[in-house]
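User: Can you fold this complex?
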Amino acid sequence: MKKRKILKIIVTYLLLTLVCLLFSIIYEHFSHGVYSDYMVYMFAIPLFGGVLPFGVIGVVKFLPLPKRLVTNLYNSGIATLTIGSCLSGALAIYGTTSDLILIYWFVGISFLILAMMIYLVNITRIIKNI
Amino acid sequence: MKLLNKPFIWAICYSLILICFTSYVILDVFVIPRAYVIVSDDTSSIADQSDSSANITTAANVTATSYQDDNISITITEYRKYDTSIYVADIYLSSIDYLKTAFANDTFGRNITQKTSTIVAENDAILAINGDFYGAQTKGYVIRNGVIYRSTVADSTNEDLVIYEDGSFEIITEGTISADELLSNGAKQVLSFGPGLIDDGEITVTSDAKVDKELTSNPRTAIGMIDDLHYVMIVSDGRTTESTGLSLYQLADFMQSLGVTNGYNLDGGGSSTMYFNGEIVNNPTTTGQTITERSVSDIIYIG
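Assistant: Here's the predicted assembly.
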């Protein structure tokens, strides 16, 4: 049950990584040689923020499947950071900036921290019960 | 809380929030016009007063590639270098008061743009190039015709071009001096794009240096000073089969060959436009497919 669910999440994040990679390649192709690290490395967010941690949860047996609230918060954080990175890259390539971009980083990181804190509390409870 | 624990409810709600917020950010950056300062008659009169103090001009001698009166002499020359057409306006002035800047719609703000030729028509300019597109940024010094419009530092390493009341050019970094200090030092125009290309006759960009702005070949706009009240405005084509465009180093190298002592890169790409005597001189293009002027925030002009 745990393995199947984790595998589903990992496959989703892998697909998201590929979509991000494809999008940045196409975008950079038409940007007349102007590059932005935010656009180039956008794919790293779902890869290292999604595939890697859920892969670890799948491999390490004593780590429980995160509850829905945790996955909701965590997935939202990754989505927010990915879109924030994409938009930062697009604005940088166009040659402009916006203070509103900071909101993506603030909200995204907050969601990730919150999700990880709840997950850690869950793990602590399980260990105590054992 | 239970509702949010149901499959997809959270995902749907949060996706909608993300889509709405992202749409707002895109509209805020690219579409919604925000006027901060409308250039008043009082402000523009500073330039007008200086005009009246200058010599009264006799009738100008105008050809397709030149303009000459008692105070202004302009010659447009097309060069072919680096597989690119480069247009150079060689300018002699009797006073720096004839080198001016103007905002689109006479308004300092964000997403307030007009085509270079339209701003030219509203300011009776003889020659003009696009400026630094200050409106695409929220920070960086903006001083125009002796008035500070923005004094926030974009980046402590950001290089600005300062045009002083005596007609001299200087390239400064924003972290080293404030906008107020620049104004009290006699700055008349401050343009914030960059980088500086030539300083005291030496090229300040390298062919392989990692600068934030584009290293690849593109349409370019630049301005430089050769001698006292002797300037050049340069615009290159690019992104077309006829012209590949210039890298910043190629642009600097070309300017140095013209004898430029202080040269500065302005907004390029699709913004690059040179206007002279009722005509667009270069072939402005954003995509390389169609030749069309892009709307910009500001221009530098002679008039």
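The radius of gyration of chain B is 21 Å. Residues 1-32 of chain B form one domain.
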